[in-house]
Amino acid sequence: MNVKQKKLTTKNHGPSTGWDDVAAWYDGWMGQLGSDYHRQIAVPALLNLLEPEAGETVLDIGAGLGVLSSYLQDADMNYLGVEASSKLVQRARKRHRQAHFVQGDARALAAVVGIEAAVFDTAVFLLSIQDMDPLHVVLQNAAWALKPGGRLVILMTHPCFRIPRQSGWGWDEQRKLRFRRIDRYLTALRVPLKPSGRGKGHTTKSFHRPLQAYINGLSDCGLLVDRLQEIPVKDVAQLANGRLKADKRASAEIPLFLGIRARKIQDWQSWFDL
């Protein structure tokens, strides 16, 4: 297989996810260090999987407002955030002046100034990969940017249990149990999402895929999974509705996020020649 990058364009290779339209709303919701979910759950879980080391280079793919850069600053990592939305890039640069951000398409990293093949020690997707499509092209580009032996970390909402508009919580009155209802899972879906507040009236796009699409997709790109973490919500008091004990039990058992770490095999070309 030829692993050289092709310069892809948004026009002929997938839909825009519309983040320019909701940039102001998103900035207001995220702030400097991210939402409550980012600060309390998602970022700590990602850092645990990433195991950052001083002097390493990290590529934040789908960087959004660049909240991860603040957490990696203390680790003394060389950070580069790439984001498709020009308005999010502008806001990221204002909020995080110590970090470096570029506008670019995750499906065509070779076309982005400042990104070259096999130069990054690590690459991350912090709650961004489910906004990108097609998955195999995004993963191929991430693998292309990594050094042999480099590691990729994905932190996303759990694709088995948190499917936009196709899953939700239910209450079993007879058993007094909170349960998770899943209406669809195996079928890949493109789901429009409508923000609230100032983002109302616009939509972004989320792409649901089953877990096997991620694990097999990583393997197809020479990225072998060596760690997987399923991450629950610990503080559910605000969701109690008079059933705090049942909510705590359900939240502890049904994870909100999924973390995956994979490493690029040393001999990339030989993997495809097998």
Overview of this protein structure:
With 274 residues, the chain is of the alpha/beta class. It contains eight helices and eleven strands. Strands 3-2-1-4-5-11-10 form a seven-stranded mixed sheet, with helices on both faces. It has a two-stranded antiparallel sheet with strand order 6-7. Strand 4 (120-126), helix 5 and strand 5 (146-157) form a beta-alpha-beta unit. Helix 5 (135-145) crosses helix 6 (211-220). Residues 1-15 have low confidence and may be disordered.
Rg, nearest Å? 19 Å
Number of helices: 8
Strand order of the largest sheet: 3-2-1-4-5-11-10
**Mean model confidence by pLDDT:** 85
Short description:
By secondary structure, this protein is α/β, with parallel strands linked by helices. It contains 8 helices and 11 strands.
Provide keyphrases for this structure:
single chain, 274 residues, alpha/beta
Tell me the layout of helices and strands.
Elements: H1 23-30, H2 36-50, E1 57-61, H3 67-73, E2 78-83, H4 86-95, E3 100-103, E4 120-126, H5 135-145, E5 146-157, E6 167-172, E7 177-182, E8 189-193, E9 204-208, H6 211-220, E10 223-231, H7 244-253, E11 257-264, H8 268-273
Parallel strand pairs: 1-2, 1-4, 2-3, 4-5
Antiparallel strand pairs: 5-11, 6-7, 8-9, 10-11
Helix pairs in contact: 5-6
